Fold each of these.
Amino acid sequence: MRQKERRMHQARILAQAGHKQRDIAERLGVSPRMVRYYLSDEGAAPESRPRPSKLDPFIPLLESILEDDPFHNLVVAHRRLRSLGYEGGVSILRDKAAELRHSLVQKAVIRFETEPGRQAQVDWKEAGVWNLAGVPTKVYAFVMLLGYSRRPFVRFTTSMKSATMLSCHAKAFEAFDGVPHEILYDNMKTAWLFDGQNWVVNPKLLELASCIGFTPKRCQVRRPQTKGKVERFIQTLGSNFLGWARSEGLDSLDALNEQVNLWLVDQGREVLRDFLETRDERFTVEAGYLLPFLPEALPDLREVLPVTVSREGRITFETNRYSVPPQYLGQTLTLKVDRLEHRGELFAGGSSVRVLSLAPQGTRAVDDRPEDRQGLLELWRRQTRPKLQPLPPKAVDLPVVPPRDPAYYDRMVAGGSR
């Protein structure tokens, strides 16, 4: 700051404190006329005009880069801007990035509340390895949490595949008896795909969203505050319910899901400190703002797999074998799997062959139906029974009759007429 500007500010401060202009002049070592000038509008410090910067045309691009990732590598960003014509150095880029980053991070950490029915947040919790039906199995918890009421839905699964996640969505909508207007996800591949330039919604999720009516939203990377509601609940799920469930020795997905639903009932009655209301009380308000859930509008969410029928008349799925009618030996059929209901359906072309009750993965179970075994046995008999060929006619040795004179037959006729 220049000396003139400093004296001007000091003069104004002293004047506001009640000092006379002569006293101010003595304190500052200037004339009373100069003090009058400092206190007049003419003496106001002129607004400094920022000098144009080489970075100015590229600030919108820099903002978009930092909006996606506030801690983006600035050396990489500098290289990208230079390829677009930026001629400045990296120092000015760092200064501007620090200014923008501070603003963006401040926005991200400000706690925001969504209006009723507006948003839900989705995430997975890796629940560790459990002994399910005697087989060590990785277990995951799907969680959807409504933003306003904090009402959660939890479903334990053995897979985080797309078909499983989408089926969990349907179960959550059924539990809420409604659909939020938008659902927030992180960069999980079952929700978002990067096409090299932009993030796009996974086609399967997009199909579900268009049929049911919600909008998928992507949270900003490295900003846990954006999806903080569901992540805070997941911490509670891990430290509270999962510890208790292990101590109880729960050994099946059905048992885990049954018990977590009971636990969620208790969670709904607890008072939220931030609102002095329970989840149930807030959900009573939020339920009226959710979109209606129409189960008949759901697309087919099952996982689709090709399976080949072996010579023994069986298909194999996750180490378990299931018999099929013998007419499909050697053919490749389509298996549609509903992992949440442990059910599969076999199709030959577009026709359903049968519905299967699926055994737990890794148990090496064999499900042979009597009618399939009987049909396979009959087919085997038909194919292996020797075919009887007709015998060729047997040659008969006849006595050789020597030729006789025709008069011999004349005498026989003449003698017979007597």
Amino acid sequence: MAFTEGERLRIARALAQAGVSEAEVVAPSSVREDLALVRALKRRGIPVRASGLVYANRPKCAQELDECVACGLDRLDLLMPLSAHREPRDPRQKIDRLLAALAHGASGRLEVGVGFPHAMQVDADFLLDIGRRAARAGAKRVTVYDTNGSADPFTARSLLGRLTREVGVSVFFHAHNDLGLATANSWAAVLGGAAGLDVTVNGLGDRAGNASLEQVATLLHLRGFETGVRLPELPRVSRLVARLSGVDVPALAPVVGAHVFTHKSPSHLAIPTEFEAFDPGLVGARRRLEPARPRAGARRRA
């Protein structure tokens, strides 16, 4: 789905009102076009940090970095895909080109980090090596991408733990939901020491989507982590994005789905805490009892 600039501004404002502090608004495939949105965010005073992505291997990388600085982008990650099937294929070239881009980007006024697509699908020692080198070259944070959504929580916790101990800067995690594990993997990354997570409203994203803002923010709150997200605002943001994207929220979607607090048995309402993971009031919702359906063959009185 493609949003208009006006729709993206509406979503950014709704996210800011919900307490989301940063929004990734510049995609690596459309840097120049997306910088127009950054300027619009600044003009309207929408209080959210604007961040973006640039491929370190692109010939126009230095030019795009300069444009991001001139535009007032708050933060940027230089992407270097770690898969041997993506250019540059040689590991040494991946490191050299990333460090060259960092040397250019870190010298400006922009806060620059690095992001590693396919990080969960390559040798961990290579990830640790390039992560350490990037940190020494000025990267302020490292983002690990589970690009094809094949990771599991045990691997995510172990790898993120090693990375946070060894690279010396903040580590973030970017989950995909191809196996339905995006929320679990994001939680495991936090247990491993991740300082932040990439999430999307309603889990929208390529293929099966990304980690859901609603699920991750609620889970972290319930586990005692302060995110700054105002949970009662989440259903409103979810509905807005569903309407603008044309992608409906499944009725069974955790946190914001229509059936999340719908009970079939009246006995549940006597002790709802035994049947609900959290009180619906936490996200501005209410529990309800589903009306009983007439049994097959039963007669209704006129």
